[in-house]
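Local shape tokens:
==================
===
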Amino acid sequence: MRGTCIMCPPQKVKGEDKTFVFSFFNDIAQVPQIKEQAVILSQNIHHVLTSITKQVNKWKKYMHRCKFDNDLYVKKSVADLLSHLAYNDKMQLYSNIIQEVDHLPLMNMVLCVQLNMETAVQTFREKAKECIQVLGKQLIISVMEDLHKLEAKLQVCFEILKEKENSISISMYEAIY
């Protein structure tokens, strides 16, 4: 067959009315060594796939931290943040993800399969940076709002002090005259 494996078309056999499909499966399937090799091959494939799954599962811890629907996730996170320190903690988390991912190997040899993790590392790094940028923008907005509120409170206090100063000045003026 010279390396080809094609289905043989049905053949007309002399002396028979029906066509017959020639196949070596029945002959080969009966040989114990072939059966044994098929089982070993199946076990080896299972072992390789299990090992690859273990490698992929190592990346699952980053999946929940760095959601790919950034806008929805970050807006939800920002709504939950109570203080400016919480913003810092979240940004620190994403910075740590970048550092952890940068220290992971880009190529993993799992038995006979070479896993190229460069694309995954690059994707996680980019997504974590996006999260940091969005959180930074939200932090700036939050700080600006707090500063405006503080400015308004200071303005009110300044006006109260000004009124008290005027009333003290008037009462002192009346006391003198």
About this structure: Residues 135 and 141 are 10 Å apart (CA to CA). The beta strands are 11-12, 19-20, 107-110, 113-116. Residues 118-176 form the longest helix (59 residues). The chain has a mean pLDDT of 77.
